[in-house]
Amino acid sequence: MSHHLVEFENVRFRYPDGTEALKGASFRITHGESVGIIGANGAGKSTLLMQMNGYMLPSAGTVTIGDLQLTKKTRPEIRKKVGVVFQNPDDQLFMPTVHDDVAFGPLNLGMHAEKVQERVLTALRTVGCLDLREKPPHRLSGGQKRAVSIATVIAMDPDILVMDEPSSNLDPKSRRYLMNLLKKFEHTKIVAAHDLDFILEVCRRCLVIHDGRIVADGPAGEILTDQSLLEENNLELPLSLQSRSVPESVVARFDRRQVPE
Amino acid sequence: MTMAFDREYFHLGVLDLLSRRDTCVHRLDPRTKVIATLLFIVTVVSFPKYEIMGLLPFLLFPVLVFGLGDIPVWLILKKVLLVSPFAAFIGIFNPVFDTEPMVTVSGIAVSGGWISFLSVMLRFLLTMTSVLLLIATTSFPGICHALRRLGMPELFTSQLLFLYRYLFVLVEEGMRMVRARDMRSFRGKGQDVRVFVSLVGTLFLRTMERAERIYHAMLSRGFTGSMRFVRTVRFRATDLALLAAVAAVLYAFRVYDIVGAVGRQTERMF
């Protein structure tokens, strides 16, 4: 299915202040894939995500979503295909009530009121937030805000779901809930995160970005167990794969007993 | 200082919570309530400068709404008191400039200035209470939608809605910054105006950045310049009837001397 394709070809991006955040990124993501994007702070993850729905246009190279190349003209079409969930839910939820917020996208797509209503209810049910629909966003907890943010995007029925740090600021239970939720989605998923365990669990494939370039691309299971590759890029093994280290004082005492006279 | 700030912030949300109750006043179409409140305010303000007796019957309206809408009286009055200095400033010079005695109350001549001052305060109490009651029974977004339906330009209503949504976010952000400053300033150092100015400047820059991110989020979801809502509020026959009744009673209170009539009636009875 070529229309769910995400293809970056030698994409470069320079900010107005001269910083070159992307220095020729190339990759291809096909239908139904779940891809994690990892990299240190400032490696270019967020900039990369911003290219996906045309908030920023590449300075050089091409971005292709489905059969459309990203330009100023195709941008509105591309935004219908790519749903972005932002890092801070307070930026994502801008309407006075949860219901209005989830309805915002579908209404902009020009749907009828009944169809919109149906979309809103389905989306909120999917993320388990149906009871919150009349609440104003500032009365929600962090986890609820995140779930509603995802509902606002899936209500538009995008082909591709892009998420920036979905697990940040979540308590363990909300994080677990989100992981299970995402595993159920059949959309193409692209997730940028520092939470490597989250990626290990949710994504099949993983891209490592360093200094504006893609330095590794492969199955998440392989990349996230490659200690030297991760450490070269200012990352480390996912916590679940690190063996718990014994405190040094305990080791010292143990060693002293073993030392022969 | 910080504590007072925190406390005020929590009060900010109280009207918001009250507006989620479910009483016969809350259930009315927001448009009805907005129009009724406007009519009420215009009528109250239209009285001549020295009027006091004519204004008293209007207290009946807030009393009714307090009762039917199940709104705690003291909570609203406290808010009215909080802003009362502004009204007092408007009328405070009347007793100074207008010293002509107008009436004699048990042997003491009261000047026209004091009467008009009292009248200003009474009007302030009536109009302010009615507006706060409108918010407490309708919710801020409800009022915005009503205004939009009544023909207010969309630009204004969407600005108001954004204000409502981000007021809490902004206040919280400011509060965090003030807390961070207080924790690292000792013996008055770090509390001066210069630090405050840079604090406000930072808050402004952060707000700009946030605005940009919000706009990005709106564009991502197909925003093309107009805010759309699915709203199903119906203007029912009861709304129309109520509005007619309110208008009639307001008119009666404005034109007839109700207090005088009641007084004469009581005199005749005894």
Essential attributes:
heterodimer; A: 261 residues; Rossmann fold; 11 helices; B: 270 residues; 2 domains; 13 helices; globular
Task: Explain what the structure shows.
Chain A contains eleven helices and ten strands. Chain A is α/β, with parallel strands linked by helices and 261 residues long. Chain A has a single domain, classed as Rossmann fold (3-Layer(aba) Sandwich). A six-stranded mixed beta sheet of chain A has the order 6-7-8-3-9-10, sandwiched between helices. A four-stranded antiparallel beta sheet of chain A has the order 2-1-4-5, with helices on one face. The longest helix of chain A is centred in the middle third of the chain and has 14 residues. The mean pLDDT of chain A is 88. Chain B is mainly α. Chain B has two domains: 178 residues, no CATH class; 75 residues, no CATH class. Chain B has a two-stranded antiparallel sheet. The termini of chain B are far apart. At the A-B interface, helix 2, helix 3, helix 4 and helix 5 of A face helix 9, helix 10 and helix 11 of B.
Helix content percent band of chain A = 25-40%
Outline the low-pLDDT stretches of chain B: none
CATH superfamily membership of chain A:
P-loop containing nucleotide triphosphate hydrolases
- Indicate how many domains the architecture of chain B comprises: 2
Largest interface pair:
A-B, 36 and 28 residues
What characteristic shape of chain A results from the CA principal axes?
globular
Label the overall shape of chain B: globular
Beta-strand content bin of chain A: 15-25%
Annotation, overall tally of beta strands of chain A: 10
The CATH architecture classification of chain A is 3-Layer(aba) Sandwich
Q: Give, in spatial order, the strands making up the sheet with the most strands of chain B.
A: 1-2
Task: Outline the secondary-structure elements.
The complex is a heterodimer of chains A (261) and B (270).
Chain A: E1 6-14, E2 20-29, E3 34-38, H1 45-52, E4 60-65, E5 68-69, H2 75-81, E6 82-85, H3 89-92, H4 98-108, H5 113-126, H6 142-154, E7 160-164, H7 172-184, E8 188-192, H8 196-202, E9 205-210, E10 213-219, H9 220-223, H10 227-232, H11 248-258
Parallel strand pairs in A: 3-8, 3-9, 6-7, 7-8
Antiparallel strand pairs in A: 1-2, 1-4, 4-5, 9-10
Chain B: H1 2-12, H2 14-18, H3 24-27, H4 30-45, H5 60-69, H6 73-91, H7 94-97, E1 101-105, E2 108-111, H8 112-138, H9 140-149, H10 154-183, H11 193-220, H12 237-255, H13 258-269
Antiparallel strand pairs in B: 1-2
